[in-house]
């Protein structure tokens, strides 16, 4: 199994191509990322040296309450400009004549924009843990997909992250249950005892979110809970790594479900080909016209069709 990268590779490649181009060109490119995030890279004919990146994030209003705007100002403050198109919530503008020397690093950093925006609830939960307050912190919900959400809640000794994921097909539901149960069972191995605790329920929501209204409770939805301990976010390096990896859990799960289905389909096609070869070899030899004989009356003589006399 592979781990997906937290940044948008196609956005990074598109921006880098514009950054290193010797002659500014008119571009109008629309890109789509996980979780229905849309990027629009655009220049105008009047100002080809100004490259605008507009971002549409459907859950942006939710993460604003968790400090997403402060994160954007800290990470991209020099490039933030007011948004003109109401379809997009974030707009960055780059002057192609005044870029830093390391253009590849800039393109890489901008391609992490979705990850940085979605990290707001995690950072808020880690800050609550650092404050050493008693009891549980606020439950922060981010509905990053239709009928799916991420719930984050901090306590004095842990941070709980809950994913609700939707399986639209019966095959996906079966494969997803196998994958998720493996996450639960794998932690019993001594080599990965430091991994977060994982709990999975296929229908009933966890206790932390059971009081919320309009939660789906049918066979098509599953709830996965990760319990993060201080060793997973105590220092800055561990914190950034944890956020990058846990955000992509839903994409990681469904990506490997699709890979498993593709592998099984390829094996089924290969088995069908083998069965067809066996059937073709089992066909009896046909009697050709050259082997037929005629009688004196002109009739065909076919001994293999003659009925035995009693």
Decide which structural class fits the backbone.
alpha+beta
Percent of residues in helices:
25-40%
Task: Tell me the β content.
Answer: 15-25%
Largest sheet: 5 strands, antiparallel
What is the residue-mean pLDDT, rounded to a whole number? 87
Shape: extended
What separation lies between the terminal Cα atoms?
Answer: 71 Å
Q: Helix count?
A: 9
Low-confidence stretches: none
Give the spatial strand order of the biggest sheet: 5-6-7-9-8
Strand segment count? 11
Succession of helices and strands? HEEEHHEHHHEEEHEEHHEE
> What gyration radius follows from the Cα positions, in whole Å?
30 Å
Report on the structure:
The chain is of the alpha+beta class and 310 residues long. 36% of the residues lie in helices and 20% in strands. It has nine helices and eleven strands. Strands 5-6-7-9-8 form a five-stranded antiparallel beta sheet. Strands 1-2-3-4 form a four-stranded antiparallel beta sheet, covered by helices on one side. Strands 10-11 form a two-stranded antiparallel ribbon. Helix 1 (9-20) packs antiparallel against helix 4 and helix 7 crosses helix 9 (249-281).
Characteristics:
11 strands; extended
Topology:
Layout: H1 9-20, E1 28-32, E2 38-42, E3 50-56, H2 60-64, H3 68-76, E4 90-95, H4 103-110, H5 113-118, H6 120-130, E5 140-145, E6 148-154, E7 159-166, H7 170-186, E8 197-201, E9 221-228, H8 236-247, H9 249-281, E10 293-294, E11 300-301
Antiparallel strand pairs: 1-2, 2-3, 3-4, 5-6, 6-7, 7-9, 8-9, 10-11
Helix pairs in contact: 1-4, 7-9
């Amino acid at each position: 199994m592979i781990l997906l990268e937290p940044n948008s590779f196609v956005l990074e490649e598109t921006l880098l191509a514009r950054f290193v181009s010797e002659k500014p060109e008119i571009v109008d490119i629309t890109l789509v990322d996980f979780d229905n995030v849309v990027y629009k890279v655009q220049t105008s004919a009047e100002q080809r040296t100004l490259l605008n990146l507009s971002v549409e994030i459907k859950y942006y209003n939710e993460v604003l309450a968790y400090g997403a705007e402060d994160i954007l100002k800290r990470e991209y403050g020099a490039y933030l400009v007011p948004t003109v198109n109401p379809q997009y919530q974030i707009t960055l503008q780059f002057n192609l004549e005044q870029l830093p020397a390391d253009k590849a690093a800039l393109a890489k950093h901008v391609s992490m924009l979705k990850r940085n925006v979605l990290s707001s609830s995690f950072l808020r939960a880690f800050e609550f843990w650092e404050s050493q307050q008693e009891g549980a912190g606020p439950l922060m919900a981010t509905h990053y997909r239709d009928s799916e959400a991420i719930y984050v809640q901090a306590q004095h000794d842990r941070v709980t992250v809950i994913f609700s994921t939707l399986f639209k097909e019966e095959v996906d539901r079966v494969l997803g249950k196998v994958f998720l149960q493996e996450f639960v069972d794998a932690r019993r191995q001594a080599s990965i005892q430091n991994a977060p605790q994982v709990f999975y329920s296929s229908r009933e929501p966890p206790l932390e979110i059971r009081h919320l209204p309009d939660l789906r409770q049918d066979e098509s939805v599953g709830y996965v809970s990760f319990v993060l301990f201080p060793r997973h976010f105590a220092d800055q390096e561990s914190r950034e790594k944890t956020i990058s990896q846990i955000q992509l859990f839903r994409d990681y799960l469904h990506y490997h479900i699709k890979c498993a289905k593709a592998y099984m389909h390829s094996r089924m096609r290969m088995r069908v080909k083998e069965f067809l070869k066996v059937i073709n070899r089992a066909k009896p030899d046909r009697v050709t016209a050259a082997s037929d004989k005629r009688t004196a009356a002109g009739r065909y003589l076919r001994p293999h069709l003659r009925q035995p006399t009693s």
